[in-house]
Amino acid sequence: MSEAVNTLEGWFALHDFRSIDWTAWTSAPETERRQALEELKAFMNKWSDVEAGKQGSSAVFTVVGHKADIGFMHLRPTLEELEAVEAEFNKTLFAMYTMQNYSYVSVVELSNYASQAENPEEDPAIQARLKPALPKTKHVCFYPMNKKREGNDNWYMLSMEERRGMMYSHGMIGRSYSGRVTQIITGSVGLDDWEWGVTLFADDPIVFKKLVYEMRFDEVSARFGEFGTFIVGNRMTEERLDEYFAV
Ligand code: VOV
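# harderoheme (III) complex -> structure
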């Protein structure tokens, strides 16, 4: 039997993608629209406080294309806290104008293909990666993925050495994008329909295209990568909210 790689888990993640009922929104009375936006702003401020208190992190972004209009990525220490964020938000007036088109549940994951930390609980660099403040970049890209389990291309039948070698090459490509993109890999085996969620943050969306394309030629992606729906969006700030929702 092949040996499973050890993984470290950090905060739980919910990617929550919603479409806006624009017909209802544009025909709603102005006072109601204002109240709905005030509630959303209050939530965004609350989420900033959660981040400042190191009890989680949340990102809000608009989504380009039909898959959704607005997206939230929440990180929280427990699955219960994650559920509470979602349930609380669902009760807002703003949420009445949204429909949850898609969501993804996972947990921030680091594997030790590269190195084994002596005491990960005490290692500040590892803790910062397991419990990250989400980057405030202009753009976000999310997609779920699997590693193939077919015939000679079965990732889970490879030896640890073979997998480590391929992950090394993967990491080297990733590292050449250092400073231009930040990746947060969340594991979702047993939690959602795919094996990992990949969330990328960058100020230039072309970097998503370049990085993902370059990785397609790397063995671990070329032979074993299977990909779900890609979602790309722009960071929502309090300043941009009024403009985006203006009728
Ligand atoms: C900024 C780019 C970047 C960098 C530096 C990077 C580095 C690394 C390292 C060093 C490691 C291993 C240790 C760890 O940290 O877990 C990983 C791990 C992983 N990656 Fe990665 N990855 C990047 C980026 C990056 C992308 C764009 C993708 C999507 C692949 C594609 O084709 O679209 C990806 C996927 C993954 C996955 C699914 C895993 C877990 C695999 C497993 O079997 O466990 N990743 N990754």
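# post-check
Residues 5, 110-111, 113-114, 145, 167, 170-171, 174-175, 177, 181, 183, 185, 196, 198, 211-212, 215, 221, 225 surround harderoheme (III) (CB under 6 Å).
The two ends are 60 Å apart (CA to CA).
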